[in-house]
Amino acid sequence: MPLPKITLGAVNIEAADPEALATFWTAVTGSGRESSGGSVYLPPAQPGGLAMFFQPLTGPRPDRQTMHLDLTVPWGERRIEVARLEKLGATTRWHVLDEHPHVQWTTMADPEGNLFCLAEHPPKP
To answer: What is the spatial distance between Cα 12 and Cα 122, in angstroms, rounded to a whole number?
Structure first.
């Protein structure tokens, strides 16, 4: 049986202020942006990159986030990127540095409180 040819088109996020949150994520990803009717689309910044779509919040924000983005940077660059993202308006929530030998990460929140992780994997021997 052939494998399905499914790819991720975009991550969709409801936001209290789609324009402001898209501005933050544009700076994070290096993407361009396309606005229309109160929503903003960020196409992938490079082939195989992450696309994001921001639309107005349609109801109360859930008390608990059940999904988040795991972003990856090259080994040795996580601290530099964490500092850059904090300057853009993200907040650091916690670090996981020695729990798993194959990965270190920092859990952060974007300006509207959506959690995401910034991970780095050590080089394989």
So the answer is: 30
